[in-house]
Design brief:
- This protein is mainly alpha-helical.
- Helices cover 70% and strands 3% of the residues.
- The protein is built from eleven helices and two strands; from the N terminus they run αααββαααααααα.
- A two-stranded antiparallel ribbon has the order 1-2.
- α6 (111-125) packs antiparallel against α7 (130-148).
């Protein structure tokens, strides 16, 4: 590998690191919708190069996670009510397809990962850490994407899940329904018994339930310190 290639590879890795840090902060609601992304603060928080930060922000914008406005800079995107509905419609199409493709053999192959996740999810939902609950409940959907083994659909789902985190931060009621964990268990039970069609129907019901928990209204947004959010 030549010097130029190594330099480009290093830049790509650094941009990816910044992208991952920002997208993770968005997913866990440390950077809620509407938060201004001040480049100087991100540079300081992540010990990063400003050009690399700009590249990462542009990538986030391509994923619809960040909005860049001329002369106003960038901020975490604020999905409209209609966009929220569209994203859930897309999730129903994608996740139904993923679940229908999961066989008993795939479930057995990933049994340890599924068991470990469900234990973590149970522990989170038994507590009162809202971010931990949201993280584990969301991870369930990503896990099913991995079990299905379709990398294209999993990639699409990953973007939909990140955008869903914005929707949850904006519109979901503060009381996270505890029944989500039991709904996940029902989906897994159907898959373990080989009834992927029932599992897909349960997933649709589950997503409809999640969407029904959204409350579209306008509320003031808290001020966020980027250095604390990215710590």
């Amino acid at each position: 590998m030549g010097k130029s290639s190594r330099k480009n590879s290093g830049k790509q890795q650094e941009v990816q690191r910044i992208f991952d840090a920002l997208s993770s902060a968005i997913a866990r609601h440390s950077l809620p919708p509407g938060t201004r992304l001040v480049e100087a603060q991100i540079v300081e928080a992540l010990n990063a190069n400003r050009n690399h930060v700009q590249s990462a922000i542009q990538r986030l914008a391509l994923q619809n996670l960040v909005t860049i406005e001329p002369n106003r800079g960038a901020h975490v995107s604020e999905p409209s009510a209609q966009e929220a509905r569209d994203i859930f419609e897309a999730r129903r199409a994608v996740e139904r397809g993923l679940v229908e493709s999961i066989s008993q053999e795939k479930m057995k192959r990933h049994a340890k990962a599924i068991e470990a996740h469900m234990q973590a999810e149970h522990g989170a939902t038994a507590g009162d850490d809202r971010r931990a609950i949201i993280r584990e409940l969301s991870s369930f959907h990503r896990l099913l994407g991995k079990v299905a083994g379709n990398k294209v659909l999993s990639s699409i789902l990953e973007n939909l899940m990140l955008r869903s985190s914005l929707i949850v931060a904006l519109y979901q009621r503060n009381d996270i329904p505890a029944c989500q964990h039991s709904e996940h268990q029902e989906i897994l039970s159907a898959l373990e018994s080989g009834d992927s069609r029932r599992a897909a129907a349960l997933m649709l019901d589950h997503l409809n339930h999640l969407e029904s928990q959204l409350q579209f209204n306008d509320e003031s947004k808290p001020s966020v310190d980027l250095r604390e959010a990215l710590a």
